[in-house]
Amino acid sequence: MTTVLVKNPETAGPADHQRERGTATASVFALAAFEARQLLLQIPVLVFGLVYLAYVGYGLFGRDEGMDAYPVLHDVDRSTQGGPELFAVALLVCAHRAALLDRRRGLEEQFGVLAMPPARRTLAHALSVVPFALGVALVVDLQFAWAALRPGAVGHGSVFELAVAPLAVLLAGAVGVLLARVLPHPAAPLFLLLATGVVTSLLSDGSGTRGVDWLWPAVAENGGTPVPGELLGRPAGWHALYLLGFTVLAVCVAMWVAGSRARVLKAATAVALAAAVAGVAGQAPRDSAALQAARKAEADHPAKFQTCVERAGSRYCAYPDWTGWTVDWAGVVHRVQSEAGGDAATTRLTIRQRIEEITDLTTDATLPTSSAPGTVTVGTQWGGNRVPEFAVGVARVLVAGSEQASQEMCDARVVTTMWLALATDPTPTATFRHLRIDDSLKGSAAVLTPDGGSMSVSAPQTQVVRELLREPHDTVAARVKAHWQQLVSPHTTTADAARLLGVKVPKGPDDCLAG
Questions:
Q1: Separation CA 361–CA 145 (nearest Å)
Q2: pLDDT tens-place string over residues 26-82
Q3: Strand partners, 310
Q4: Helices 43-61 and 130-148 meet at what angle, rounded to 10?
Q5: Helix (H, G, I), strand (E, B) or coil at 313
Q6: pLDDT of 377-425, one tens digit each?
Q7: CB-neighbour burial class of residue 343 (10 A; exposed 0-12, middle 13-18, buried 19+)
Q8: Cα–Cα distance for residue pair 203/213, rounded to 1 Å
Q9: In which order are the strands placed within the sheet that holds 314-318?
Q10: What is the model's pTM?
């Protein structure tokens, strides 16, 4: 008879526990990598991912002219937030579907005998979205870098604004996994999206309740006239903290529902909850009194906040973010003033950037017309139509003496103004059409000006300007300078201007539109 001695099993030491924890962590990451590859193969993720890339690609390569060549970086960072919204929704739906795989295929019992418990599998599903968030972060950085490297770029971006898009993608994946644990039904994402749509429609009453608006993942507030960065008043840092805290909290709650009661999970849940609450509290208050006072001061007294430089006999004053554009402004002033006659050819101008008092970031500014002699308004946008609009602004001040005085013009001075603005333009006839609100070359129309207003051009004045643009430039330029005093006189009619400049005299009286 053989006696077998059985030794007592050795007690696991710290090294063994460390090895087990390392193996468990590695298995979570391995499953997360596998699930990420599976998500990439899901049709909604693939389709909306390609749509997002196409949208970004069009923005980078399809719009290289106009104002896109002069980006304001503290607007560019916000514009990156809305692009991946549909992609995030697709990830939410597909992450939810992946986390319900065992339930959908009746494999809950088989998954239950695996060494990896449900909570860790839940964490792996949440981590599977991380590569997509990193991909969105890379795209966002590319968008911003593309704009920042343009020669005409001004302003400064915010890291927190740029973080919103990737954090929104992370949040979508976390919410999808949480729904799979709390509401394990295939239609749960649909119910969530419908509920979100209903809530959004109910709250979209124009009240602009900031505490509610900023609970959504992205609050871009785009479309308005750019303003100095220090006047934005956006709680971007608090919002990023809110998104991060909410994301971690969703993952922790999902793991809790899946059965985990680990001490680390409890601590992470408490920290995430505190971060989310702090983010909500920090982003909820409306603009402070100090910010509102600063906005009013910079709108009412811009000279106190601007940097001024001298260029070719004129003074250019801009807010600090925009000083790089003064060279471009000076180029337009030079070419317009070179066509003027009399004292206007050497008049010292003050080019001053102005903004409207800010109430929100989605409204285009319309500024009050300046009464200061020799002062030309320039805005916070440049390129495209803003260039000929500025040329009109320079020309009307050279002709009338001030922007306010130019509002009374309904005579030869309108023709002179338009000739100065268009004479040296590369495509004068096309530019004349684009300057007019109705995009026409016949009849009466309003011509846009840099203060956001307009200047009236009657049908006879339009006809004379068209005729002048058909004539040789040097011939008309010589006549303009020779008859300058008559052309800038309020007593000279449009018909008189046509005779002085040697073009066909229009029929009928001037019928200037109201300014």
A1: 23
A2: 888 898 999 999 999 999 999 999 999 999 998 888 766 788 889 999 999 999 998
A3: 315
A4: 10
A5: coil
A6: 999 999 999 999 999 999 999 999 999 999 889 899 999 999 999 999 9
A7: exposed
A8: 9
A9: 307-311, 314-318, 350-353, 375-378
A10: 0.86
